[in-house]
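Researcher: For the record, we're logging two predictions in this thread. I'll number them. Prediction 1 follows.
Model: Prediction 1, sequence and structure:
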Amino acid sequence: MFINHMVGMFYHPKEEWGTIHEERYSVLHIFLMQISILSLIPAVSMYIGTTQVGWTLTGATYIKLATSSAIPAAIASYFACWAAVAFIAYSIHWMEKTYGGHVAMNECLILTTFTATPLFLSGLSALYPMLWFNVSVGLAALLYSVYLLFIGVPVIMEIPEDRAFFFSASILTVGLCTMVGMLVACVILWDTVVPLNYISL
């Protein structure tokens, strides 16, 4: 069912949000059946791309990660995705009354998960870790996630569209700050706790 919703988000997102809202998924179901699987996409792709293909800026010189570094990095990436989704969903739940929303935490988690789905899927680009390619795919996914957010908030949060616009903007700000925070945390982690070992080709 989740795959059907995921496909529907690309073909008829407005109608799909309504269908998703009617099904009332539980928090446990969302974490175990959706986030746990989606988080694997960037983590596994990054592991394969960095150990088998290697990073490159121009396509001429490739730098691989040692397996001893790639495994902890992939695991950290996996759980960072869990933490990011949970934090954004909690923030939505905390802010909702300001904009007239009165839904449960599971609805906030649903909104966060399905909005972030294009970003999770864009993690497949890490199978070929070339900077311009990854940035292009990530930017396209981010733009589509923003679109899903703005059309999904009034449906899932059950608030008028005029309030939904400002609520969506607030959620977007939280999401972008969370992404930046994750990047900074990864840089600090890789520089101190789990130093990365590179293999030049």
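Researcher: Logged. Prediction 2.
Model: Prediction 2, sequence and structure:
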Amino acid sequence: MEKIKTFDELTIQDNFLFQHVMRNERLCTYLIEKILDIKIRSLRYQDFEKNH
């Protein structure tokens, strides 16, 4: 059984936090700009992760 993490223990590698950031256009844009050191004009979302 997985230990439940506190908010302070979460990282971008945790699925919960990753999805939260990627679904928020402002946060997603900021993160991508910082990682790639580029300016993003706009984002276009395709599909969210699908669970079978």
